[in-house]
Amino acid sequence: MQALTEQELHNLGMNHVGKRLQEMGYEFVAVNSALKRHPQFVLYKKGEPTIFVLVKVSNNIQSPSEYDVLWMETFKEHAVKQNAKVWYAGVGIANAESIDLPVLKNQPYYFAFEDFIEIL
């Protein structure tokens, strides 16, 4: 059994978030799936301001929406300059048997995503 890499976990979380955004009627102006590059999604919907979506994947399935406030402040400054809104998508992905074990390819896992948090 092979564990998912950090990039593969990130992509799994992004796929779920991207599907939710499409269901909400948003179009993707840009998508960036590289680790530690933000925003992951730049959204467009007629009549609304641009929205930057930051996706962070962790193994915290109890409260995946927690984020580093200082890190977010620096990103908010960038968004203000671009006249954009900022949404945060905290995604928790963990091994179905134990959160102490890595998530394995083709094996069950828990997925936690509550909703988008409007930061700005």
Walk me through this protein's architecture.
The chain is α+β, with helices and mostly antiparallel strands. The chain has a single domain, classed as Trna Endonuclease, Chain: A, domain 1 (3-Layer(aba) Sandwich), CATH 3.40.1350.10. 26% of the residues lie in helices and 28% in strands. The protein is built from 2 helices and 6 strands. It has helices spanning 6-23, 69-81; strands spanning 27-31, 41-44, 51-58, 85-95, 109-112, 117-118. Strands 1, 2, 3, 4, 5 and 6 form a 6-stranded mixed β-sheet that branches. A hairpin with a 6-residue loop joins β2 (41-44) and β3. It is globular. The N and C termini lie far apart (42 Å).
Summarize this entry quickly.
Helix content is 26%, strand content 28%. The chain has two helices and six strands; from the N terminus they run αβββαβββ.
Total of domains? 1
Number of helices: 2
Indicate the multimeric state: single chain
CATH architecture: 3-Layer(aba) Sandwich
Q: End-to-end distance, in Å?
A: 42 Å
Q: What level of helicity do the residues show?
A: 25-40%
Share of residues in strands: 25-35%
- SSE pattern: HEEEHEEE
Uncertain segments are none
Instruction: Output mean pLDDT.
Output: 94
Radius of gyration from CA coordinates: 15 Å
The CATH class designation is Alpha Beta
Task: Using the coordinates shown, work out and report the CATH topology.
Answer: Trna Endonuclease, Chain: A, domain 1
Shape: globular
Could you say which structural class the secondary elements and strand pairing correspond to? alpha+beta
E-strand count? 6
Largest sheet report: 6 strands, mixed
